[in-house]
Specification:
Blueprint (H helix, E strand, L loop, with lengths): L14 E6 L3 H16 L3 E2 L8 E6 L4 H19 L5 E5 H14 L5 E3 L7 H9 L4 E3 L22 E5 L1 E2 L10 H5 L3 E2 L2 H13 L4 E5 L16 H9 L6 E5 L8 H9 L6 E3 L7 H6 L6 H14 L4 E8 L6 H14 L1 E8 L17 H24 L5 E9 L6 E5 L5 E5 L8 E9 L4 E5 L2
The protein binds S-adenosyl-L-homocysteine, iron/sulfur cluster and FE3-S4 cluster.
């Protein structure tokens, strides 16, 4: 037991501040924590200086993400040192992977827990606030794992995530996720459909099914349906206008999934399909278990099923043993596959991952130069893609205010193109025809068609 400052807040006015790093899984998990804490009377604040509890939901996918966690923690620990009665908790992937280290290093941190323990947040926070230092970073047996059904009370908008699985059974050699999220487990399809219905009841029109390898949904569990079958079930929920999913693995894109693109108008014509590299040698070293040729076959099949199909991807440059020729193959794949957008990263060494043992680690300066080259070309491609839309009339779903201009709202096409155009917030959730007037790198400008 340590002598932590007791907050003066009563249950009625307890305030929690969240700082969330990382991927869609972490965003979703933060929503679940908010939902569970709300049942105990916690409200969310956007201002850490008025919080009683700060929860940092962390990511360890690259070293940079871990650095961001340390600087965020520095800020909150300073506030505590200066007298704010603050309980500080670390959640997410760094907590899972380095729980012991964090507990030892930061004596003023009250709570460290991994993603498997979110369903117990209420009792963990209570214990931490009564002065106990709490650490829960053991993986649960899959039989004891509980997906949280409660829906984030502050969720608003027309688009929402629904998790369909936890963990990952792949062992890509660069990736830390298997260490931070544990073994894969699929959520019961009935629960996924129920959460979808609950969200639609709150005005959601676009559902994004999330997991680290959604294609393998259900395969491990006897009697569960497949991912393609799940898409049909979600499409059956009245009010679901658009369905998206992330992340899928190029190895596992089966014919049944491609057929779903023929059958389900709700399934949008944009897919984010991370390829990582255009070199078969590097893909082998990454243990991705597909070739460039397989990847092209998959996307060509998708383009046959959906002529307006649009693709985005993730790329790692500077993976160990990547030669100039290997990198060139990634550059040519960008042209051949016609990525509309991509997230590209310099390879980052992650503790405990097999890629650390590959000889010929690529010097940082070489990887940096490759990244710049890749990103410059991608920017050009994205700009051309958006400019080519000028004059087209597209149908968008209005999602919210434009980030930059007042009186301007933004919507997305089924191909995930963001279009900003004059409009009112009251129109959020509506579908509207818009003529594209300008194309930029990440979005378009448009005007409504009367
Ligand atoms: N499950 C997804 C990816 C999740 S991580 C998939 O299999 O595609 C998101 C992205 O981060 C990955 O696609 C990869 O491009 C990048 N990434 C993962 N580990 C990385 C590392 N060690 N260094 C650089 N980028 C990495
Ligand atoms: Fe990481 Fe590979 Fe799993 Fe994606 S599929 S989370 S890259 S191990
Ligand atoms: Fe990061 Fe964990 Fe997601 S490592 S990318 S938050 S699964």
């Amino acid at each position: 037991m340590s002598s932590l400052p007791e907050s003066a807040a009563t249950p009625a006015d307890r305030r929690v501040f969240f700082r969330t790093f990382g991927c869609q899984m972490n965003d979703y998990d933060t929503g679940k924590m908010r939902a569970l804490l709300a049942k105990d009377g916690w409200t969310t604040t956007d201002d850490a200086s008025e919080a009683d509890l700060v929860l940092v939901n962390t990511c360890s996918i690259r070293e940079k993400a871990v650095d961001k966690m340390h600087s965020a923690l520095g800020e909150f620990r300073r506030m505590k040192k200066q007298g704010q009665p603050l309980t500080i908790g670390i959640a997410g992937c760094v907590a899972q992977e380095r729980g012991d280290e964090l507990m030892a290093k930061y004596k003023d941190i009250d709570l460290v827990f991994g993603p498997d323990h979110i369903s117990k947040i209420s009792s963990m926070v209570d214990a931490a606030r009564s002065g106990e230092r709490v650490q829960d970073t053991e993986f649960l047996d899959l039989a004891n794992y509980a997906f949280v059904a409660d829906v984030d009370p502050t969720a608003h908008g027309v688009s929402a995530f629904v998790t369909i699985q936890k963990g990952c059974d792949n062992k890509c050699t660069f990736c830390i996720v298997p260490q931070t999220r544990g073994d894969e487990l699929s959520r019961l399809h009935g629960d996924i459909v129920a959460e979808t219905r609950a969200l639609v009841g709150r005005g959601v029109k676009e559902i994004t099914l999330i997991g680290q390898n959604v294609n393998s949904y259900g395969l491990k569990q006897a009697g569960e349906i497949t991912f393609a079958q799940l898409l049909y079930k979600v499409a059956d929920v009245p009010g679901v206008e658009r369905i998206r999913y992330t992340t899928s693995h190029p190895r596992d894109m089966g014919d049944d999934l491609i057929q779903a693109y023929r059958d389900l108008p709700q399934l949008t014509s944009h897919l984010h399909l991370p390829v990582q590299s255009g070199s078969n040698k590097i893909l082998r070293r990454m243990k991705r278990y597909y070739t460039r040729e397989h990847f092209m076959r998959v996307i060509n099949a998708l383009r046959d099923a959906r002529p307006d199909f649009v693709l985005s991807t993730d790329i790692i440059v500077g993976f160990p043993d990547e030669t100039e020729e290997d990198f060139e193959e990634t550059m040519t794949l960008m042209e051949e596959a016609q990525f509309m957008a991509s997230f590209s990263f310099k390879y980052s060494q992650r503790p405990g991952t097999p890629a650390l043992r590959i000889k010929n680690q690529v010097p940082n300066s070489v990887a940096g130069a490759r990244l710049t080259r890749f990103q410059n070309r991608q920017r050009e491609r994205s700009q051309i893609y958006h400019s080519n839309l000028v004059g087209d009339v597209v149908n968008v779903m209005i999602e919210g205010p434009s980030r930059h201009d007042e009186g301007v709202i933004c919507g997305r096409t089924g191909t995930h193109v963001m279009v900003n155009f004059p409009g009112r917030l009251a129109e959020i959730g509506k579908f509207m025809d818009v003529r594209i007037t300008r194309g930029f790198t990440h979005s378009c400008r448009g005007e409504r068609v009367e």
